[in-house]
Amino acid sequence: MSSGNDRQSGALSKPTFSEEQASALMESVFGLKASRVQALPSYDDQNFHVYITKTKDSPTEYVLKISNTETSKNPDLVEVQNHIVMFLKAAGFPTASVCCTKEDSTTSLVSVDSGSEIKSYLVRLLTYLPGRPIAEIPISPQLLYEIGKLAANLDKSLEKFHHPKLSSLHRENFIWNLKNVPLLEKYLYALGQNRNREIVEQVIHLFKEEVMTKLSHFRECINHGDLNDHNILTESSKSASGATEYKVSGILDFDDMSYGYYVFEVAITIMYMMIESKSPIQVGGHVLAGFESVTPLTAVERSALFLLVCSRFCQSLVMAAYSCQLYPENKDYLMVTAKTGWKHLQQMFDMGQKAVEAIWFETAKSYESRISM
């Protein structure tokens, strides 16, 4: 849901390219002639769905990504993200393919004279992945299990990823890294004075006391960091009984990648899978079971899971409210999580950690007996 290493500063400049300008970039940077260009929703970057005239053995649909000015100042980070996407693709994960520029690079820095100043934007191109996002389909316990398993496999695979600029993923003040929940204090004014703010303040306080002190005991890894209900695509098929079944067909948006911990990834995934669910509290156990079929959590990691899920809700909800003040014209997209997020966070808080954990851990345990049968 984000992309800048410093997206919270207000110093970034979201690109405002027209569809005509995007079409011109396709030709000048990538040597492809667009037949149709359509803007896609985005947080603080710009994305375009681009159709090109069919050529032999080449895709006909792409996503043109134009980074905001802050992200564009960190080309090493974007280069590493591109190489991770290529690495995962080669490892069999359903990611897009990264396309090269005419100069055989994975990115290009484009300068635009806005009249008062010259702004530079990193541009890159990916193949378009078809499919329906999780947000648009009825999600079954089995699919939640598979998504949890996918999250763990992704992080585990990245243990083998190497790149000379890998240190760029140590994003110390990146607002979307779960480690940085205390940074939310600077943006609480965007909530006004209400119960929502009181809950967020309590979560931040508990995070400082109960999570910050445990970080050294968590197992570190590279996190995707944004496996939300719009970044996981599915395809459908018919079962033998004629029922519609869904399986994951695509993973999108690697812009929030950073060094984190295995428990961060499962917490983030649980939180986003709760958003569209009619039984949100039940979700966590199914996702956890899938994740732990690959990477079982330690006792100390499990003890932090509830608070980490609450913390991710707070990150998403606070930053959405803040970003709406920066980009009111993008409110519908920015507030997607808020439609149900506050209700789910309040429900978790009202039930309390022990009650929610009991549901999650019992559900996860039920999968163990199924597997052993």
From TrEMBL:
It is found in: Cytoplasm. The keyword Transferase applies. Pfam families: APH (PF01636). It catalyses: (5R)-5-hydroxy-L-lysine + GTP = (5R)-5-phosphooxy-L-lysine + GDP + H(+). Coiled coil: none annotated. Catalyzes the GTP-dependent phosphorylation of 5-hydroxy-L-lysine. It comes from the Eukaryota. Belongs to the aminoglycoside phosphotransferase family. The keyword Mitochondrion does not apply. InterPro entries: Aminoglycoside_PTrfase (IPR002575), Kinase-like_dom_sf (IPR011009), Pseudomonas-type_ThrB (IPR050249). Its EC number is 2.7.1.81. This is Hydroxylysine kinase. One of its GO terms (cellular component) is cytoplasm. Residues 45-281 form the Aminoglycoside phosphotransferase domain. Keywords: Cytoplasm, Kinase, Transferase. GO terms for molecular function: hydroxylysine kinase activity.
